[in-house]
Amino acid sequence: MTRLPLLRTALVSLLLFGLLAAAAAQPPPLFYAVISDTQKQNNDPYDDFRWAVEQVNELQPQFVLFPGDLTSGGSVNQYEHWSAVRQDLQVPLYACPGNHEGDGCARAEFRARFLQYTGLPTYYGRQLGGWQLFALDGVHFINGKNEHEGALSPEQLTWLRAELARLPAARPILVICHFPVLPQWRSLANGAELLDCFTPNYLVYTVTGHWHKNEHAVDQQGRLHLITGALSFSSDAAPIGYRLISTVGYDLYTAWIGRPVEEPLSLVGETDGAGPLTVAAPAGAKALAVRLEYQGGPLRVRIVGDKGANWAGVFPAAPESTQALVPLRARWAERLGKEGKLHLSVEPLEAVRVSRLALYTSPLAWEHYRLPSPPSAR
Predict the structure, then answer these.
(1) pLDDT of res. 276
(2) I need a labelling partner for 328 at 20 to 30 A (CA). Which of 34, 292, 303, 364 fits?
(3) Which domain holds residue 345?
């Protein structure tokens, strides 16, 4: 073998080693929906919530996050109508309470009612696909009266610090709370104290509701904070709806599904194995998304045609079965539409079990955000 092929082989090996090391250290993928602020008055059938549940059942994400205001006044009547729809949801739901759940009852009664109808305490932690979820209770009572804005109790902050002390420093953390945590949103009175709790840990982003609009901000540590819109009424230009979120390593993709949308993702083709998937891309397709369900890895997904590979994405290692959805960049989607027939291939970089590989068209406007790396890697 001549020196040039040897050098090329060494460079390829070095690049592959770098890919393996980087992908193994990144947070594993998650694909889920966010439904918030369904709040309705007594005897309302929650038809908007039912629309979202039916779509989520078709999409089959890993779970649904619900950052509060399930009801308009926390009444038994409203909870019962909400529960009649929620029982049809076919994926796990992780909810936290909003200020409207605290209306019309004392704090102890509010907590008991939330537990009765959701099966969840008002604050808790869960391990989800290699991530740590913290659902927090910002409902705030002063002299027995429920306030519109929130605050975390001293007891809850003490519990949170103890939970964080037990976590590995590199464990990625996702927080949901009804009340946005950054001071410019004037919602959570002790939001700064909450964020300080995570100083030695790897808080990646937060998902909140409350303001019935879609906003985002990045704090000084690079952590992303998303406010999601509502499924009852909107206070911005977006229609009522719900959100899809997909995280793949340090990339977060999110799209708002407004109430008029009937099919957020339309299946083009799929396979249940790691072999190539041949797809006939619709002519002129400009919005496509690759979805992968797997365990292990990392792995590489390529769109391959007669003239070679058009796109490659490295998906991080996943210790548990997980899902990832990646909207394709416009230029690759347009090329797929022009060439008409290409195939997707999965190339394991280490041991991996692929349970599904699929390609969709999508009418959604996907936003992309970069997520922070662990504090030890900065």
Answers:
(1) 82
(2) 34
(3) 265-365
- Please provide the average confidence, as pLDDT, over all residues in the chain: 90
pLDDT band with cut points at 50, 70 and 90 for residue 2: low
Q: Does the pLDDT of residue 225 top 90, yes or no?
A: yes
46, 194: one domain: yes
Domain final position from 226, 258, 290: 258
Rounded Cα distance, 219 and 216, in Å:
10
Q: How far, in Å, CA of 314 to CA of 307, rounded?
A: 21
pLDDT for position 9 = 41
Say how many domains are in the chain. 2
The model's pTM:
0.92
CATH of the domain at 354: 2.60.120.260
Kindly state the helix (H) or strand (E) to which residue 319 belongs, with its residue range. Answer: strand 318-327
For residue 230, the number of C-alpha atoms closer than 13 Å in the C-beta half-sphere is 23
Residue 174 neighbours by CB distance under 10 Å: 23
pLDDT at 18 over 60: no
Say yes or no: 343 and 293 in one domain.
yes
CA distances in angstroms from 193 to 164, 166, 179, 216, 327, listed in the order given:
14, 19, 14, 20, 36
Q: Rounded to an integer, what distance in angstroms lies between the CA atom of residue 304 and that of residue 310? A: 6
For the ranges 19-28, 108-117, 129-138, 349-358, which has the lowest average pLDDT? 19-28
Are both 243 and 281 inside the same structural domain?
Answer: no
Token pair 């594993």 is found at: 28
Task: Judge whether 9 lies within some domain.
Answer: no
User: 198-227 burial, b for 16+ CB within 10 Å, e for fewer?
Assistant: beebbbbbbbbbbbbebbeeeeeeebbbbb
Report the C-alpha gap between 28 and 132 in whole angstroms: 11
pLDDT tens-digit series, residues 241-267: 999 999 999 999 999 999 989 899 999
Query: Quick check: bond before 180 cis, omega within 30?
Result: no
Distance CA 109, CA 111 (A): 5
Which of 208, 242, 258 lies at the terminal end of a domain, its last residue?
258
In this structure, is residue 138 part of a structural domain? yes
